[in-house]
Amino acid sequence: MTCYSLLSSLAILCCSVESAAAFSSTSSAAPTGSTPPLLTYPLTQVVSDIDDTLKSSGGVQVAGVTLGGIDVQYERGDFYPGVFQFMWEMSLHPVTINQRHYDDNFYDKASAFSLQLSPPKVAVLTARAEEFKAALEIKEGSKLAKALRRTGEMSEVKDWGIGPVLYGSVSEWIIQDRKGLRKFNNFERLIEQDPTGQILQYVYVGDTGELDQEAGETMLREYPEVVKAVFLHVVSMDPPSSYPPSGIPIPSPKLINGRPLVFFRTYVGAAARATQLGLMEDDGLMRVVEEAERSLKDGGVPKGSSKWIDLERDIEMAYRTLEVDLS
Questions:
Q1: Which of 4, 97, 148, 267 could form a disulfide with 86 if both were Cys (CB 3.0 to 4.6 A apart)?
Q2: What are the counts of helices (DSSP H) followed by strands (DSSP E) for the chain?
Q3: Is the pLDDT confidence value at 14 over 60?
């Protein structure tokens, strides 16, 4: 994506914020009294990797080079249970709290004006080579784009889904150690949309298999004022039969520049951590739980599988989180 197209995205976003965050009216008359601010809280744009983050790479290799990642727990191309609901709930949260603030402080039944916000679309940072874009481009008709769009439509929001996509290059496929730096450099291009962070702030979601941790930690060190958190999906090249009975151990969260770096095994676990950090609503967490369970059930995954062991462990954490919030 060129700088011009990034700036074009900003223009579209600003129009969206002004038409959605501004106060729409069926009347041409201006509102009486002071006009509320467009945004009390910045919106959140989720920035995501693809392979082993949104969907499994299957751990496929060609000539010793991985084609996107290392995860062998899920089949290549499988979407992770609850992933799209997680992305939606993270994007939705600032919309909800802006609406709540408006209703509590500015809402007037006698006024024709109302606050209408739409969650920002998901930005993508991928190691996929731009030189192979003809074959690897993420198109609006792809299964990935359709699944994200369908998640928004379930909440009666049309056209939510894939936003800006920034690719890697062939050089990172040859020299794998460059992938983290390339993703960070692409993130720097992305935040040209709004360097102030007054309209947009970011949550980065990646995985532990392709130097996303290096990219995420650099984001937190260099841009803590606009990066709210980094979430890393813990993946493994080991077969599920080798996992401990309680599942793969998950590293503890840590702070970098006062911002959280969170490791997770399932998107229910990620949602529980997000709720603990005030980045997701309680009912949003429950929707992620329900969607993840539905995904495994619909896929006919046997109850004793490592996928259910991981999910049930994180569902327990989700319920503990909700108990604390309700106490």
A1: 267
A2: 10, 11
A3: no
